[in-house]
Structure formats: structure tokens, C-alpha cells
Amino acid sequence: MADMVMGSAQGAVDSLLGRLTSALVEEAQLLGGVRGDVQFIKDEMESMNGFLMHVAEATGDDGEDHQVRAWMKQVADVAYSSQNCVDLYVQSLGPGTAAGGNNGVLGFVRRLPRLVWTLPTRHRLATQIRELKIRAREVGERRQRYGVEAPANARRDGAKVNKKPWNGGGVDDDAREEEDARRRALAEADPPPDDHVHVLVKMLLDQGGHRAGSGLQQLKVLTILGPGGIGKTTAVQKPFRRTKRITSKSSTSWKCSKCTLKFYKNNAIALLESNNPSDDLKHVLMVIITKLAALGPLCIHMFLRSLYLNPCRTKEDFQGLDHNLDNDNISNSFLQVLLFIYNDLSSNCRNCLLYLSIFPEDFTLRRTSLVRRWVADGMITKMGRSSVMDEADRCFNLLVDHGFLTPIFTDVTGKVKSCRMHDLIHDFVIRNARDEGFLKTNLPTDLTHRLSVRQAPEQLHANTTYSKACWNICTHVNQSFQTEFDESSSTKMFLELLHLSTHFGLLQVLDLEGCKDLKDHHLKNICNHLLQLKYLSLRNTDITLLPKQIDKLRYLETLDIRQTKVQAFTKNSIMLPKLKHLLAGHKTDCTSQAGDIQSEEPFFTVQMPRRIGTMTELQVLSHVAVSGSGDELVDIASLLRLRKLGVIIQRPQKPVFRHLYHAIGKLSRSLHALSIQIVADNENADTDMEEKLVVPPKYLQALEISGLSQSLTGIEQLLSLKVLKLAGNFNTESLKLAIAANTNGPILEIDDAS
Q1: pTM, whole model, 2 decimals?
Q2: Residue boundaries of the structural domains of the chain
Q3: Fewer Cβ in 10 A, N or C end of the chain?
């Protein structure tokens, strides 16, 4: 479990360093001693972070030195406390000098009443920051006093567990892809139909016959008993498909057949062939496979996936697992297998997996939402040159590949878009999260998965009685209102109590998707009080308006207003300097009382805000409406980090396509996905994209266009294109020729219903 502590400490320090850097650069109001103390804490944490990275490199995240582990916990505690304290101090100052309109003498005069009003609070927080400075110094000195050092015995002989995916052993790319596909097929393959399938079919069809004199087949019930995860569902799926009927009541049990066992053993050995396993290692592996066969398909498939991802395990690794397996205790054996696989994950992957403990059982997890939350909540430590988003995306893929996440929906390219956890894996994750102190909240289930993980209530408000009462919703409601508490209404109560405590302002993630209790006045309170928010989802709520106070969320990175009725921002322009993902759009149909579609409005969406070009951090802008002239598209050309663009062009005119092509050309090195939807509700609308792209987007992988009156040109120039989705009137033959001319061979999806 040392790896979890390592990841927690590194994540805490990385998050703190980013926040302190931002505060020192943007907050000129951090004057005098406070600014000096913050700078000292930052310098100390940078040194500690360097040591943590050295430990990670020396031990491969597998170190079990108890002194190092204890010290890392102290580092994480100081980092969390420091970030919370600095955030509260900055929040008490109000909008900083970087917020615009607050510079110079006039800006100071505007802030003066607030500065006077918050003087006692700032004095108390400044004292706490000074105390944290002393704690940071003591933690650094304690490491030297007790001789806490990075282990010198770094294992570089290849015997250390290799946590990187198999890379093909240095062969060329094509051969590597073919070999990887072969090995993945071995890990994911189902055995041939087992004896139990025929047994079940025979039991379902042979016994019972027909009811006398009725001519009707007598229905039967077949009961299959066994603990969770042993494969009851898998066992009945195949015979059910063959009989289509579950039909006298009986119970049965069976063991894995010799044929199936041999299948699993052969696949396991084949997955290790690239590492030239010894006969002793093969023998231990065969013993393990025999034991795992009694645990059911879920367990054995996860083990095979682990071999696929890491074929470089040693005989000692397998002997350790074999020693821990006990067929007389199926639940414990299953737990040991999960621990064996879990311990092979990187610290980032472990953080991301334990994060899932906040979600209810059988909760559907969407890839993009989950990845953005991981980043906003500080689950990811940047690795090398890859961005934190790319690293989070890689962690998601690894959790799917290991079998911790079960895919629900996969797109045409094979990318998993949504998934869920098996109930046994969910129990395992919750247990580990509690053991590691990752899950420290007693909040109701309905509320827990909507809030930040890093800022757990006990951490935020350990010394604030009233704030703890606010966080403990049940206690607050019972004591203050003498009403019976309904856990399902905890989110509604949270929204109502939000304005009562400034400590809520430390929240960085608020996911209100599907919350029908959210009202427009609640959103104003959120914008006024949760000033540290990085992730805000209002998806599928009844919100109709984004308030002008939205500008106060200066650290907001994700704003999700999909499936709402928001059509415009209250202000003509907004300024969210950190915003990376602006997500909008909602498909709607206007229907009559008889249910007939009278008219279609493909997207009910928000108008593109003015000054969008000033939010240069934007990476995703989807799906926003532009006017027929397309003047708003001019600003998009300034968003040089934009990876995904979705626009709804209403009543298009000639200039709109010229502006669009110009913007696409400017974004040719960054754009990966483009969606263009043309809504023409009059005969004068121009739906012909006659102009050609001067500079085609070099890395564009997905293109979706609807509402055109003619076909497209230039498809053959999009050499990275993987998926092309079209809806409208076009020349099918010319499209197929263009697709054939594209060397990348993109997948074509056509919807000619529109």
C-alpha cells in the first residue's frame, strides 16, 4: 500500500505547488509576511516533491520503508492544509488583481470595504499560514533528523515488476501492433462451449414436458446458486440464448471442465512466451490457473488481462499469489487476486481507481466526465511530456484493460465511452479506500459522488464546529429544523445551506448532473461562494440561465451545460481565464399532442459568448450556436489549444463558411474533432460549402457534418481521419470515392433520414 501513500503525497504537493504559483503570480494582495510565508512553503514543497520523485524512481512505487511512508503522510497533510488555508485567504480578499477591473487606485478603492470587513478573518488565516510555514520546515528537518532517505537498492535488473504495457520488444510498429492484437485476443478470449451449457440446456428442455391435456409446455425454474463473481450470469447466458426460455425447480453446481481449464492454461503460457518463462515459473502458473478456475470467469479473466499487460512478472510474484489463494475461502481468494492486480497499478491508476469509491453501486461512469473530474480533483500527477488529461485518459484505458471497469458502450473506433464496476470490484475499491484513508466522509450517498474528494469534510473543518455541522447534513437538519432527514434529499439540502458557510468555497468539484432540485438562485449562490471550483456540471438540470456572477469562478476548467435550456449568458461576454471545456447542446423534438413530430430543432444550445478568443486555455468548445454571418468564428482562430470544436450554424449566409474555414486553418495543428451542424429554417439560407480548406487540419480524427445540401470536398486531404459522420443531401458515390482516396481508410457513417 506504500504506492497509494506515494501517489497521495505527490498529488497533494503537485496540486499545492500549482495553487501557490497561481496565488503568487496573480494575487498582488498577498503582501508582507503572508507573501513571504507562502513563498517559503512553496520552496519547501518543491524540495519535498523532488525527493518524492526520487523515491518513486528508486523503488518503482513499490517501496515499503515505514519511515519513508510515515514521512510522506506528513507531507501530504501539510500540503492539503496549506492549500486549504491559502485558498481561504485568497477567497477572503475577493476578486484579485488578475480579474480585470481591479487594478490601480480605483480597483483598490473598490476592494477597500471588503478588505476592512474581512480583516479579522485574514489575520486569523495569516496566523495559520505562519504556523504551516513552521510545520513545513519541521517536516523537512524531521526527514534529516531521522535519516529518511530514498532506498539505494533500486532494482534495475529487470526483475522489478514492470508497470508499463508490453511494448513489443523493439520490433517495428506493424509487427508490434499485430503481436499486441494477438496477445490481447488471448487475454480476452472465451473458452469453447463448456459441458455445463449442454447440461443446462438438457435440464431446461428434457424435464417437465407438456401439461396433460393442455397442449402447453410446462414452465420450469432452474435455480443456480453461488457466491458473487463465480460466474452465475455468464453460465446461464449461453444456454438462455439457445432455449430462449427459463423453464420444475432445481439446483445444480459444476466445476470447470478439463477442456476449459486446458484452454486457460494454454492462453496463460502463451501470454508469457515473450518473457521466455522457465519451467518452474510455468509450473507455478499452472497451479494458480487451476485454483482460479474454481473462482469463476471474472477472476480468471482479470488475471489473464494482468498477464497480457505485464508479462514480466517473476516466479516469486506468482509464488506469493499461490501462497495466498485458498479454495476453501472463495471470497478471500478473490480478494487476493484483486490485490495482486491492484499492486501492479501505477500510483496515478490507484488514485483514479480509489476515487471510484465515491460512486454508488452500478453507477454508469462516462469516460470524459470521469477523466475531467480526476484532473480537477488532483488525482493525476503529470508524467513526462504528456499532459495531465492525456495521463488521466491513459489511466482510464488501463483500468478497463485490467478489468476493473466493464465497458457499457464502445464507439466505432473501439474507444470505450462509458462503463461500470462489478459489485465485487466496487466492494474491493471501497474497502481499500477506507483502509488508506482515501474515503473520509460520512455524507449521504446521494451527495458524496457530487463533491470533491481531496477536500474531505474532516480535513476542511477539523477546527470549525459550525462548518462541520453544515457538512454533516443529517445532524444539521435534525438539530436545526427538527425534521426527519431523507437521504435522497441531501443534495437539495446542501444547495439550500450553501450560503451559510464560507468554508464551502474550498470545493473544487461540483457535479449536479440530473439534479432536478437545482434552481437558478442556487446557481447564483454557487457562483458567489464556491470560488475555487474547477469542475461544474449542470447537465440534465432545469437551469435556464447562467448568471452574471459566473465570472467569479476564475479557476473553472470545465463547465457542462448540456441537456439544459440555457440559450445565452446573462452578460454579453464572459471571462473565465482557466476554462478548458465548455460543453453545451441538447437534442430536442417539437411534438404534437398526438406524438407526431411537427418540427425538429436538432440542437437547443447556448449562443457562443463574445470575447471567446480571450479564453486561450480552451481545449473543447462543443456545441455552441453562431449567427448566420459567423462573425463569432473570427475569435475562435485565437484558441490555438482547441482540440474539439462543435458549432451550430443558424440560418447560414455566405460569409459564415469563409470565417469557419479560416478558423479551421488556424487550428490545423491542434484540432482533433470537428462537428458542424447547419440549421436552415428558410429557403434563403445558404447550405453550400463551396469553398475549400486552404490548410486542412493535420490531426483531425473525427468529422461530423449535417444539414448540407451538397456533398463535401477535400476528404482525401484529411490523412488522420478515422470517423466521418454525415447527414443531409449528398452524392454518395463521390463520397465513397473520396473515402477510398484517403490513405487512412476512415469509417463512414451516413444518416440519410434527415
Answers
A1: 0.80
A2: 2-145, 195-252, 258-342, 347-435, 442-583, 589-754
A3: C
